[in-house]
Amino acid sequence: MNFKAKYNLPFELLSDPTGEVLESYGVLKEKKMYGKSALGIERSTFVIAPDRTILQIYRNVKVDGHAEEILKFLQQVEES
């Protein structure tokens, strides 16, 4: 059973083995850890409309409260 089916996710998941999408969304960043530089992924959320336009971008997100922030934004979009 794949991940999407296992967790009954109602949305598509993306696999990006070449990093092409990471680069196009600008989320592949140089990070420093223990004094060493390495490429890493900036934790980000992109809210994308059905017509594939980007409605909102959240960069450097923190886990605490982020889901609630997204839900509030989506409710505002739905009401407008």
What does this structure look like?
Residues 2-55 form the Alkyl hydroperoxide reductase subunit C/ Thiol specific antioxidant domain. One of its GO terms (molecular function) is thioredoxin peroxidase activity. The structure is a single chain. By secondary structure, the protein is α+β, with helices and mostly antiparallel strands. It has a two-stranded antiparallel ribbon. A hairpin with a 2-residue loop joins strand 1 and strand 2 (36-41). It folds into two domains: 1-42, no CATH class; 44-80, no CATH class. It is built from three helices and four strands. The longest helix is centred in the last third of the chain and has 14 residues, at 66-79. 29% of the residues lie in helices and 29% in strands.
Strands in their spatial order, largest beta sheet: 1-2
Range of helix content: 25-40%
Using only C-alpha atoms, the radius of gyration works out to: 15 Å
Query: Care to count the β-strands?
Result: 4
Structural class: alpha+beta
**Structural domain tally:** 2
Flag low-confidence runs: none
Q: Outline, from the CA principal axes?
A: globular
Distance between the ends: 38 Å
Biggest β-sheet: count, sense, barrel? 2 strands, antiparallel
Mean pLDDT over the full residue set: 93
Order of helices and strands: HHEEEEH
Give the percentage of residues in beta strands: 25-35%
